[in-house]
């Protein structure tokens, strides 16, 4: 199934008097759940869906804990996750402390297998 997009118009906020330009906006098309992953894995292996769900749940729970502990988590050739964030700027290094952090986020970096899949992905305009 291809990646689909809609066409949207956007004005340039730096030049509000110029006409808008049109852009492709990638849209989601369905979803894949833990259940779906487990069902698929059980069809291509001898492991039951229930066992696969247990492994997935414990694996992703460990990934979440490790990212929250500040570790960089490498998931094979698929992706890497790590913590990132933003903070307030201070005049001196001594003024910087944990209360300066304004937000935390998760940084996702695709690995070579996901990058390769994206290179091969088909894209089409949504009907």
From TrEMBL:
- A single GO molecular function term of this UniProt record: DNA binding
List each copy of the HU domain by range: 1-123
Pfam families (alphabetical): HU-HIG
Q: Which domain of life does this protein belong to?
A: Bacteria
The record's keywords, sorted A to Z, are: DNA-binding
Q: What is this protein called?
A: DNA-binding protein, histone-like, putative
User: What organism is listed for this UniProt entry?
Assistant: Chryseobacterium taichungense
